[in-house]
Amino acid sequence: MAAECGLVRVGLVALDSTRIKANASPGANRTEDWIRAEVQRIIAEARATDEEEEDRRQGESSDSDIPEDLVEPQTRLERLLAAKARLEAEQQRRQAAYEAKVATREEYKRRTGKGMRGRKPKPPGERARDRRHTTLANTTDPDSRILSTASGGFLQGFTAQAIATENQVTIACEVTADPTDFAQLQPMVEQAVRNLAKAGVRKRVGVVADAGYLSDDNLGLEHDLGVELLIATKNREHTDNAPPPRGRLPKGLSRTKRMERKLRTKRGRRLYRRRGGSIEPVFGHQRQRGAGRFRRRGLRACNCEWRFEQTVHNLLKIRTSGKWSPLGRRPSPTSTSRNSSFRSTRLLLCRQSCH
User: pTM to 2 decimals?
Assistant: First the structure.
């Protein structure tokens, strides 16, 4: 609909993420030992209760038993088991990543005869960050994570990804439990390309993102994704003050150095400056609508809620653009439809979706 109204300009789109609180308290985080003990206690209590009821009902009809399909599935025991499974999977993932790094360093030393530069990887149990956060699981919403915020604090929540055009129209969105953004570049860009193709927009796009998406593997995806990437480097403050590069591109530069050189050009600086005005207002408007915390629990449910929020955002953009009206007429800039409340529109859409 936004494409039909002419609001989707995809010469340049911006990718970014924001932290959103989960419908769970950070105080509900527990260690694996506590969860295991609690599961055993609940199972033992349930067995004792079953035996007591079985003794009391001997000789009586079982017609009064509650059917299995009417039993509430979201029990405390199931949430605890889900949290326990998540901790075990997280521990296996960290151990596998550690072993892969060690194998890479050993292979490099065998091939070159020299040790690989950089810090040696530490086992998961010796990393301070793993001891503080990744050994905990939330018993209210096991899918949520303890995430760091831009202000230096922490919150219990999810990472919400979004790609927006220069008109602040969202063309892709997703919720993840990943505390970093490195692995989200490819799936988000692929989702944006698919959505644009469905809307009939097949123009080549440029994707601009901050340094959270910077990695050597991501910089090598331009050809596979069919887009131009502009990703900020870690030395962004240095590149802003550096003069534009001159001459031919030197040979032997890494992908990161080539991207840093690209961002120092006049074109690169001009394009990157447009990132903030494309994606940041999307997150700001979402929080103004009171969507700074998910109302549902679970990764799948929160993902549906995030997509609903972005749909509301796009509909509000269409309504206030002056290019569409419910009667098919183009409203005037002073019409009351342009000045209606965002809250009323969001409430109406929520009611319609419930029916």
Answer: 0.69
